[in-house]
Design brief:
Mean pLDDT: 89
Strand order of the largest sheet: 2-11-10-3-9
Strand content: 15-25%
Shape: globular
Radius of gyration: 28 Å
Largest sheet: 5 strands, mixed
Bound molecules: 2-(butylsulfanyl)adenosine
Length: about 675
């Protein structure tokens, strides 16, 4: 292959991976392999300037710009950082900085700050007179999306600053992250709703920040860490002290930030965090080292892409090589077929990995997996193990490429490809065991009808014994039907029947969720229930009426129409209704209860224009929050109208309690 051909190949590959990463939020390659390809391209391009091309992927930082947001130019471009996976290269960078700045003390380095490299999505915040005025994503580095409304829902970001010694106007940059706990919860919900999972917290944070619904953003639990302050009037002449000031003003600055005075201290910092980062509540993909002194930073300056005064050290993801035993094809509740790699068990980051999802046919094809291949399994920022590559040199002679199944592995029905998506589906909705069972398990689960005693195992038992063929059959069960079953004693039988009875009082919005209408998850179900008020209205709505409801797009509308076009589904609804299941919203209760504000103590202050104070109190209550009269450390939020008292304002600022206006509050609770 000629150099030119290799350059073209790398450009094509990198463009493909950029698209998967920035547009689909679903990377198809590990960060390490991506960085290595980019480094190879950069090296070849610098050695062969005759092949330079303005449109080469090496010339851009990538873009996260999304339609639907207003674009704003950055005052200072948002550059990326030079990176390395090698401790030696970090040491060389420290030496080079010292040389360029003519530091002659051989033992001591110029002061370097070591920091975590948070693995999220970068943000630039502008503050004027102590108030947040704008939040912009990195975008293409020159301009980004204005996501101020979404940023305001992140409780660790101060909307007004503490104290009074901050510059009148400044920019602060940081990383929006989704902590591991929130990430797990979000993916659990998505798995439950058979929505595609986020590959890592970084994609989840980026995806969440770009939602058009700030109440949903608020619910997902984003957080933010800050690491760079820009202003004409910075309080100190060095980065470290400026960050400590930012902390005093109310920003979250990582406690891991440390001043380092020698290469030895830099290396110790790397060794320490290589291990300890596993215990942090948020994902990190490396460390960042920065020259501390701002004058020295200025002297070192920038290359066209990144500052010379900083470098990122990236942690290598833990990776193992193991044999593919076979690929199984699993059928989900919505009939979607997921290929799963069943592996020779291998130890990776402290857990034994036996299976890894291959997501869909495209992933299998992109990876080019053959029977019994040796596969690379990785767990970097991800908890879910991921297949990132194949060791082709270890492939058995005559091994065949893995073929995607053409028929349902359970009921043998020919599969259909969902238009516009990478998934294959079994269309035999009402005759395919895993789909029927999946719907029953979904229906009885804790988030839906919460029927005690009928879990995954018992659903299968009841189904296989011919006692239930669908969810409505649950309401006909008698203890005497259950008793003859193996593993069902009198207590379990009683619990099941009582659980079914109790489910008749589950609110209408959860009943809609429990029906397993494609794309109708918890939030959509709640929106639908509030808008339609009863099932008859929903069953008879046309596409135009459905899309007129907030957050209901054509895809969801079509899924609802298709669902109710099946006579079997209408019959199911009628049987559930006859059994006493809630099929409408209660008469007087025009604002149904939610748990959007669960765990939050909210203080109301000032005069409002859209609702009275009493109405706001009732709204807090209905959405699961607690109203309190005085501001304390326990206060989560202040709902402020006009003329909020100055002493309250001062107290809120000093405690760092976020203050929101009535529009923001109403948006938060989805009104
Ligand atoms: S400093 C001009 N510090 O990493 C330098 N960046 O690969 C500004 N990041 O775009 C960046 N943690 O999104 C800096 N402690 C940290 C960081 C950090 C994460 C991200 C940031 C940046 C990317 C560069």
């Amino acid at each position: 292959m000629t150099v030119k051909e290799r350059i073209d190949e790398l450009r094509t590959e990198l463009n493909k991976h950029n698209h998967a990463y920035y547009v689909n939020n679903a990377p198809t390659i590990s960060d390490y392999d991506y960085d290595m390809m980019m480094k190879e391209l950069e090296k070849l391009e610098s050695e062969h300037p005759e092949f330079d091309d303005d449109l080469s992927p090496s010339h851009r930082v990538g873009s996260d710009i999304t339609k639907g947001f207003t674009q704003v130019a950055h005052i200072h471009p948002m550059l990326s950082l030079g990176n390395t996976y090698s401790v030696e290269e970090v040491d060389e960078w420290v030496k080079k900085c010292n040389d360029m700045l003519e530091n002659t003390d051989g033992m001591k380095s110029i002061p370097i700050v070591g920091e975590m490299k948070f693995d999220g999505t970068s943000i630039s915040l502008i503050y004027e007179n102590g108030r947040l005025v704008r939040a912009v994503t990195r975008g293409d580095g020159e301009k980004g999306d204005d996501v101020t409304e979404n940023i305001k829902t992140i409780r660790s970001i101060p909307l007004t600053l503490h104290g009074d010694n901050y510059p009148k106007s400044f920019e602060i940059r940081g990383e929006i992250v989704l902590p591991w706990k929130a990430f797990d919860k979000l993916n659990e919900e998505r798995a439950f709703n058979e929505e595609p999972l986020f590959a890592n917290p970084r994609n989840a944070a980026a995806g969440t920040l770009k939602l058009q619904n700030s109440a949903e953003v608020s619910r997902r639990g984003l957080d933010a860490y800050f690491y760079y302050l820009i202003s004409d009037n910075l309080p100190c002449d060095n980065h470290y002290d400026n960050m400590l000031k930012a902390k005093e003003w109310g920003f979250k600055v990582s406690d891991a930030m440390k001043l380092l005075h020698s290469i030895k201290e830099v290396d110790e910092f790397i060794n320490y965090w290589d291990e300890q980062r596993k215990h942090l509540p948020v994902a990190t993909d490396g460390l960042v080292f920065k020259v501390n002194n701002l004058r020295q930073q200025l002297n070192l300056g920038y290359t066209s892409k990144s500052p010379r005064w900083a470098i990122a050290y990236k942690f290598a993801a833990e990776r193992a090589l193991t044999k593919l035993n076979f690929v199984s094809f699993e059928v989900g509740r919505m009939g979607i077929i997921t290929p799963v790699a069943n592996l020779e068990p291998v130890l990776l980051s402290g857990t034994i990995v036996k299976r890894a999802s291959l997501y869909n046919e495209d992933t299998v094809k992109t990876l080019g997996i053959h029977e019994h291949d040796m596969l690379y399994v990785e767990k970097g920022g991800e908890i879910i193990p991921k297949i990132t590559g194949v060791d082709e040199s270890a492939r058995e002679k005559d091994a065949k490429a893995i073929k995607f199944v053409t028929h349902c592995p359970d009921c043998n029905t020919p599969l259909i490809r969902i238009p516009g998506e990478a998934s294959w589906q079994c269309p035999n909705k009402y005759g395919c065991r895993p789909q029927i069972l999946g719907r029953i398990e979904h229906f009885v689960s804790r988030h839906m009808m919460d029927i005690e005693g009928v879990g995954e195992e018992n659903s299968a038992l009841l189904y296989d014994a011919g006692l239930i063929k669908n969810t409505a059959d649950l309401y006909d069960l008698k203890e005497s039907d259950l008793m003859p079953l193996e593993r069902v004693g009198p207590r379990t039988a009683q619990r099941i029947v009582e659980g079914v009875e109790a489910s008749k009082s589950v609110p209408f919005e959860r009943v809609i969720y429990a029906l397993s209408i494609p794309f109708v998850g918890e939030t959509v179900a709640r929106k639908l229930a509030r808008a339609v008020r009863d099932i008859d209205t929903l069953m008879n709505m046309g596409r135009d009426e459905l899309v007129a409801i907030e957050d209901i797009g054509p895809r969801i509308a079509d899924a609802i129409i298709e669902y109710f076009a099946y006579p079997a589904n209408r019959e199911l609804v009628e049987r559930l209704r006859a059994a006493g299941v809630q099929m409408s919203m209660p008469e007087q209760d025009t604002n149904d209860h939610t748990d959007i504000l669960a765990g939050k103590t909210i203080v109301i202050s000032g005069v409002f224009s859209k609702h009275s104070r009493e109405e706001y109190k009732a709204l807090i209550d209905k959405n699961g929050g607690k109203n309190s009269g005085s501001i304390s450390k326990k206060t989560s939020l202040i709902l402020a109208g006009e003329n909020m008292g100055p002493s309250k304002l001062e107290k809120a600022k000093s405690l760092g309690v976020p203050i929101i206006n009535e529009d923001e509050f109403l948006q938060m609770i989805g009104l």
